[in-house]
Amino acid sequence: YDLYAYATNKYGEITCKTVHFVVDITPPNLTINSPNTGYYQSKTIAIELSSEEGTLIWYRILEIDENNQTYLAGHYRTINDGNYTLIAYSQDVAGNIAVRNVTFVIDTVPPSITIVQPVETISNNSTVTIEILSDDGGEHILYYISPIDSGNSSYNGVISRSLYDGDFIIHVFCSDLAGNSNHTSYNFTCLLYTSDAADELD
Q: Rounded CA gap, 132 and 109, in Å?
């Protein structure tokens, strides 16, 4: 806007003054380009914020920063595994402030795998119980039994498999939401006809 002010003296002379001003009550645009909501497999993440030209930008990671951090392009942070919230601020020349936030997870640890069953030796029973546990956020578990399976199968809970006399290896693969993966294997033996079973048949 332009404001014009006029004054007339006793001689009829007119003086004019002009002031230009801007009314701006709209916060600036502010975008958090990185990090995004989700999981990160690396402890080093890029901090990428963007706003309108001429604005001041700062940010804070609540769990580790005591004070706001001035944003500089090409900035990286190295932080430990955990859950975090980043809050970003942008201020324009009129003093309007925009606020954005994002939550993210740093997870660099592979999920654990525990093969609860089968036990090392299975006697007098062709039915084998498969029970697998993952305690560290394992979201996707696959397994196969060598030498009878030609490929992986999804594991969604305790299951039973029918096997024959022989030695087997169960292989288990697990991945979490961050993309960390783990693998373990276990040898076991099926003895469908032991000496005790033969005595019972006699």
A: 19
The DSSP bridge pattern shows strands 44-51 and 69-70 to be: unpaired
- pLDDT value at position 125? 80
pLDDT given for residue 183 in this prediction: 96
| 192 vs 110: CA distance, rounded Å | 37
* Coil, helix or strand at residue 199: helix
Cα–Cα distance list, 177 to 75, 105, 106, 132, 174 (Å): 25, 10, 11, 18, 10
Residue pair 164/126 in contact (Cβ under 8 Å)? The answer is yes
Q: Which residues contact 69 (CB under 8 A, 6 or more apart)?
A: 58, 59, 60, 61
SS3 200: helix
128-170 pLDDT per residue, tens? 999 999 876 557 899 999 999 999 999 999 999 999 899 999 9
Average pLDDT over residues 157-186: 93
The Cα 147–Cα 163 span in angstroms is 11
Could you tell me the two tokens for 9?
């003296």
